[in-house]
Write a structure and sequence with these properties.
Thiol Ester Dehydrase, Chain A, 6-stranded antiparallel β-sheet, alpha+beta, globular, 153 residues
């Protein structure tokens, strides 16, 4: 997390409303089984339980699923930093895979740059043993209108 932006935390009530709204209510996250574990402005932590349906058929979680987890984590960190005034759209993403993901996966994301028009974030995907599976660097475009997280205010 070297270089992570330090932003003021949410009030606990806002954080709880976001948790209640994200977990179980976002279709793609439901489909994959991804759950939000922690969120603060500029930081998010998500969890993906291992399921055979998410593998390539050999017990390894498919790379696109790992990428979705990493991208979603950065998006939530960015959305939380903008809350409630804007949303984002990924405009660039780079993944580096270190080892196969064969267990439950956890992804932690943090922002390293927050501008008026773009935000840059990093995320790290780890397995159930704490070993690094993948790293992601992503840029998102800030789209100034109501945040999707606003419905959880």
């Amino acid at each position: 997390m070297h270089g992570a932006l330090q932003l003021p935390p949410f009030p606990e009530e806002t954080k709880q409303r976001i948790f209640n709204g994200v977990n179980g209510r976002v279709p793609i996250l439901n489909l994959l089984g991804i759950r939000l574990l922690d969120i603060e402005p500029g930081h998010a932590k998500l969890f993906l339980p291992f399921r055979p349906e998410l593998t390539r058929g050999d017990g390894v979680v498919q790379g696109g699923i790992v990428t979705t987890l990493a991208d979603t984590s950065i998006a939530h960190a960015a959305l939380a930093a903008l809350f409630p005034d804007a949303t984002t759209n990924t405009i660039e993403l780079k993944m580096n895979f270190m080892r196969p993901g064969t267990t439950d996966l956890t992804c932690e994301a943090w922002l390293i740059h927050k501008g008026r028009r773009t935000i840059v974030g990093e995320s790290a995907v780890s397995d159930a043993h704490g070993k690094l599976v993948a790293k992601c660097l992503s840029a998102v475009m800030v789209m100034p209108h109501r945040s999707p997280l606003d419905r959880y205010r």
